[in-house]
Amino acid sequence: TPFETILVERHGPVTLFTLNRPQALNALSSHVLADLTQAFAAFEADPAQLCAVITGSGDKAFAAGADIKEMAEKPAADFFAEDFFAGWTRDLVKATRKPWIAAVNGFALGGGCELAMMADFIIASDNACFGQPEIRLGIAPGMGGSQRLTRAVGKAKAMEMCLTGRMMDAAEAERSGLVSRVVPQAELLAEALKTAQAIAAMPPLGTIAVKELVNLAFETTLDQGIVAERRTFQVLCATQDKAEGMAAFVEKRAGVWKGK
Ligand code: HXC
């Protein structure tokens, strides 16, 4: 099914989602969330799809934020009544066990920065810039920015950025641990897809387990996290892919994964 606000392409086992409202710098309207929710659910449900990339159309923006024009019109009580923005974390972050990468190709501001941080990691183009400018609009981050940015770059930078709206360029974002890598803009999509293909070539239960464990590090104590890791390791030892992986190593050949 074609969507109005996003493009969805399959590259073998990798799904590419492209935010597709370039005339609004890919601003994240409720319509975008509805489209992404449906597209992510299809990705998650398809056993042939193993990793995803999300990027923005055009060469200027990943996403310049939540849609300011939509929010400007909305009656105040509706934000609370609809639990506005709850769907982003509920339907994309919590409902998706498979890994997905944000390929940030320009502005990632407000909700755009927050969406990028919902991904399992970010690869940025050299012209990318990140910011939480909500303060300038009389609001505050609402899709996780105050929490995920603080965890990603620490208190000093997160506090300064959220209080002043100052943007971070790609080099500072890499230095600060917000992004895993910076690549030239012309190579961004190819690099992100190549990385996603590399993940998709791994034993699929392993990638789901790794994602869960790394995310758990943000939610739990070290002791409980270490126990969860050890149990997960033990469970993976019962899989066919573990037997195959170790046999393939001994026989000096590539493994063939079943996701079982
Ligand atoms: C709706 C947006 C938009 C947005 C840009 N546009 N950002 N529309 N929502 N977040 C639209 C513009 O209105 C304009 O449409 C078109 O995209 C091009 O943008 P320009 O401003 O003309 O481009 P430029 O001069 O290059 O400036 C780029 C920019 C600027 C610096 C990124 O667009 C900007 O500051 N955008 C807003 C960034 C922001 O404040 N984001 C946070 C949003 S709040 P027209 O029709 O005029 O051509 C948020 C809330 C989270 O995310 C939580 C709240 C509770």
What does this structure look like?
Helix 1 runs parallel beside helix 4 (86-94), helix 5 (111-118) crosses helix 6 and helix 10 runs antiparallel to helix 11. With 260 residues, the chain is of the alpha/beta class. Strand 2 (14-19), helix 1 (30-45) and strand 3 form a beta-alpha-beta unit. Strands 1-2-3-5-7-10 form a 6-stranded mixed beta sheet, with helices on both faces. The chain has a 4-stranded mixed beta sheet with strand order 4-6-8-9. The chain contains 12 helices and 10 strands. It is 47% helix and 16% strand. Bound molecules: hexanoyl-coenzyme A. The site of hexanoyl-coenzyme A has 20 residues, from helix 2 and strand 6.
Radius of gyration: 19 Å
pLDDT average, as an integer?
A: 97
- Number of helix segments? 12
**Structural class by sheet pairing and helices:** alpha/beta
Largest sheet descriptor: 6 strands, mixed
Q: Helicity, in percent?
A: 40-55%
Could you tell me the strand content as a percent range? Answer: 15-25%
Largest sheet: spatial strand order: 1-2-3-5-7-10
Distinct ligands: hexanoyl-coenzyme A
Shape: globular
Distance between the termini: 30 Å
Order of helices and strands: EEHEEHHHEEHEEHHEHEHHHH
Contiguous runs where pLDDT drops below 50 for at least 5 residues = none
**β-strand number:** 10
Brief description of this entry?
This is Enoyl-CoA hydratase. The protein has 260 residues and is an alpha/beta fold.
What attributes does this structure have?
47% helix; six-stranded mixed β-sheet; Enoyl-CoA_hydra/iso; single chain; globular; binds hexanoyl-coenzyme A; alpha/beta; Enoyl-CoA hydratase; 260 residues; four-stranded mixed β-sheet; 10 strands
